[in-house]
Design a protein that fits this description.
The structure is a single chain. By secondary structure, this protein is an alpha/beta fold. The chain contains four helices and six strands; from the N terminus they run E-E-H-E-H-E-H-E-E-H. The chain has a six-stranded mixed beta sheet, with helices on both faces.
């Protein structure tokens, strides 16, 4: 599996229960993926997905270590059938897996909770949306975990 972790340092606000999200960036250019992963490493465990032939099992194993995980693809990679299959398989096996597609919209090809952004979106807008969505997902996970704990009493 070729997940390249861009940042060697811990995210600034490490939280309990492995709630720091894993965000895999799969852009058409490896350099662009690594650069974007570096920019989001302050609020996530960011990695560049440099091999488009990653197996479903390897990817699911990597994301299973985190409460939430994201796959971000750009216009160039969204037509990659392996990325679509990877996203659908991960969404089916990981309750808090989400996708973000930056580019033209083909909603049927992606999992139900996918967020679609315009190809004209600035990278800062994409990062802000990703940071906000990750935070909302973390709150949701915490609430669900708390409710499940109360229900099991």
């Amino acid at each position: 599996m070729s997940l390249v972790i861009s940042a060697k340092r811990e995210p600034r606000w490490m939280t309990p229960f492995n709630s720091t999200p894993l965000i895999c960036v799969a852009f058409g250019s490896t350099a662009e993926s690594e650069s974007f992963a570096e920019r989001i490493s302050d609020f996530s465990e960011a990695s560049a997905l440099v091999d488009t032939e990653v197996s479903n099992a390897e990817f699911v194993h990597a994301i299973a270590k985190h409460q939430s995980a994201w796959l971000i693809v750009d216009d160039e990679m969204q037509s990659n059938s392996n990325m679509k299959a990877l996203a659908k398989h991960a969404a089916a096996t990981h309750e808090y897996f989400r996708c973000m597609v930056v580019g033209e919209i083909d909603e049927k090809a992606w999992p139900a909770n996918t967020i679609f952004l315009s190809s004209d979106a600035l990278s800062t807008a994409v990062i802000d949306r990703l940071r906000n969505e990750s935070h909302v997902l973390r709150i949701s996970i915490s609430r669900n975990r708390h409710m499940r704990r109360l229900q099991s009493r």
